[in-house]
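1st attempt posting a full record on here, be nice pls
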Amino acid sequence: MAASQGFPLRRLLLAAAACSAFSIPMYAVTPPPPSPFDSVDETLHSKPVTQLVMGRFVVSLEVTGLTKVQKTIGIGSVEYQGDGADAASWLCYTLDSSAPRQRLWIVSNAEMGGPERLVDGVRAQYGNRIDASPDCPSLPKRFQPVSLNRELWLGTVETSIRSKFGSPSKTIGNWEQFYYLGKTRGDGKCAPDGYDVINGFSVKIEEGVVKDVEATQVTSC
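the predicted structure (as tokens):
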């Protein structure tokens, strides 16, 4: 699909659904914020993000499942909200030892993540009023620091992003978007050209540094 038209996100990206919950917990849940973009323009020549690194634990996009993340970290509950293509499961954690504090969501879109609930999205943001809660407990220090591919994270300076990825493919206000679209044959079921692979990230830049980041990878026919 032409980059000028953008690539639809509805069937691809994580969504912060405000619809009915799959089950009703005994506490309020904190869903990931809505995506800053409703489509992507693919301008990069290679995947910019493929892993979430948490200390020595590595979460690979579309490979690692939410259940493994939960069991490895040892705390946190998998929440679920939404309907249809907007439904999503996630784990939420609070990095309350950082200054400013950070909130992290590890997400699996219900449609694209499959029954294994493979992680296909990551969202993180700064916030001075962020506190740990039953649905967003404090992330144990052994799983810190946190980053995407050991390079990109909250606090990354804008000049560093420019040097690695060039100019953004799209901007909305303080938000900048960087995406890659490629092909993979995978299991061969999506003939003749193979599967579309969309991988990328969006960042909110304030005062020259990243204050909010969203990263996704989705493979679709």
